[in-house]
Amino acid sequence: MTPSPSRQETPGRDRRHPFPRRAHRRRGPGHPAQGSHRGPRRGRPRPGRPRRHRPGHTAAEPAAGLAHPGRRDELPGDELPGVHPRAEGIRLQEGRRARRLRTRESRDQGGQGGQGRRYRGAEGGRVTTLAQPVLDYRLLGGHQEGLSFLDSRGVTGGLRYADLAQQARRAAGALSARGVRFQDRVLLPMPTGPAYFTALAGCLLGGFVPCTVVSPPNPEDPRSPGMRQFAAVVSAVGPAAVIAPDEATARALAAIAGPVYLTPAELDGDPATQPAAPRPNDLHHIQLTSGSTSAPRAAALTYAQVTANVTALTEAFELHRHPGGDRICNWLPLHHDMGFVVALTALHSGTPLDLMTPIGFVRDPLSWLRHISERRATITSAPPFGYRSAADRHRRTPLAELDLSSLRQAHVGAEPIPFPVLTDFRDAFAPHGLDESALIPCYGMAETVLASTMSLARRPSAELSWGRVKALRLDRSELHHHNRVTDARDGRPDITVVACGRPVGGLEIEVRRPDGGGCAENEIGEVHLRGDSVMAGYLGPDGAPRPVDARTHATGDLGFQRDGDLYIVGRLKEMLIVRGRNLPPYDVEQAIEAHPDIEAGNSAVFSHTDDSGEQVVAVVESKARGEAAARIKGEVAMLVRQAFGFTPREVVVVRRGRIPRTTSGKRQRAKLRERYTAGELT
């Protein structure tokens, strides 16, 4: 996870009152508009499709509003916040859906717009059945609370939900006026802050499809890894627009052809008069997930799928039981699915949301807990390394004035969960009022929007069971080398695995053998997830989602079930999970092989799990020995740290030919992992 840069921190900021007095709008009649930035065009417009009008030119049709032919866009009256009443109990029949698709096709062929790709459906011909209303951001302004933005010292700003709703209407109108059409994709390479939420809410209000991504750290250099990755994202997502954080970044990103490049200043347009009413099969957002940096994998998620998961999270967070008494505090970046979807849950429920910058957390992990203490936050979420960092810092520099008694739920997920991290955090902060039942292990992924399972049940107190945490101590050799679940025995190496709980949001779990058959309890297999939260599909080369068979996602994770709980013990895939971020091993190997003493193909990277979590190990083939080998180890670790922001647990230098390969020359990382754990690599 690459933290987003934060603005300079200023001592003495007020931690309690983030909302300033309402200021007069800076722009008004006669104020010069900012010019938009546009990359070079890739070619002529497609037949029958006009070019997008440039800012300052007269469009063929006015587009300040967002009324769409063939749609009913009446504004609702006094309904529940975050839902649309007409969607209650929606069950789309084939005939009705066919008529709507024909209407949408007619609209897409005749509407004014630009070069962004147009897509008619996200469900691959399937009918979506939705038991609850879909999320409706037109009702955001009815909430009383808002967003607060913090750094490691205190509050840096705030935005009430009512003000966000007004700004979102102007942003939706501005995007529509720039030629962005219903269901067009919009990239948001922006850091956490008010401008990001204005852009996000404007997209959701206007029926556009946001995709939050990392802003390249060196956009001025088109050959930098960040710009190469951003170009791959543009190619994969096919956005009609990109909203950059500032003009300089917009100009630099505009070197990549295709979309129109805008800044937050250009989103202050005429308010959208008729925001779009969402429908279950409309795309809600796109979440980048696993895949290489040159070919990112993008999960397409519909309103029905996001609604199912956000509703499940609202229930799991017990927000309905504590109306007006909850506050969420997070530091995760918003391009991360956990950070993004928890923020959506706050917007949907009207819960106050405190957002730290990731760099603020990295600088001072205890500032996260200090904000929870001072602002009486009740809910937070983080990967295991966040809890480990806070506990480690507290041991080195204890924070005496800390009161965590308000914290009801602290979700732990996004990467394998080491049992010692949970016990260390509990023991470190129990003297400061932390309830041990606040810690909740979870399992999830972007392909199910976010949450798949949560350990919500209270457990009996025992050596490996307390609060909502439960773990098993298993025979390490039987697990890693024979793929068998065997309870640990005296005198043999063991490993502790944490229960991730039971499915949420109507999801179902099936653990399958390689032949596709279902596994019995305590039998290891690949975890499959089925249900309403499963994505529409990954975006294909044509930009449309590839349908998911039988609404079932094969996760690539190895696990087993016992007493209804899911336990994750490894992966079929070779994907690395580092601080909640998925990294293909070949991307890391490519960075390693930039070393002048390491030839192409002479490195391999894998991960293995021990009691301290998931560890990344790099193996390189070289003739070097002694001091030369030690130098290579240090330089390889530095290359990985510079490229990806983490340091391998170990770099092993082996002689040529020690990395196992197939007959076709492919690196066998799983076999290499087995040799490493068996102590056979020297």
TrEMBL record:
InterPro entries: AMP-bd_C (IPR025110), AMP-bd_C_sf (IPR045851), AMP-binding_CS (IPR020845), AMP-dep_synth/lig_dom (IPR000873), ANL_N_sf (IPR042099). Residues 14-29, 38-56 have a biased composition (Basic residues). GO terms for molecular function: adenylyltransferase activity. Residues 574-681 form the AMP-binding enzyme C-terminal domain. One of its GO terms (cellular component) is plasma membrane. GO terms for biological process: fatty acid biosynthetic process. Residues 1-125, 662-682 are annotated as: Disordered. Residues 159-539 form the AMP-dependent synthetase/ligase domain. Residues 85-96, 671-682 have a biased composition (Basic and acidic residues). Belongs to the ATP-dependent AMP-binding enzyme family. This is AMP-dependent synthetase.
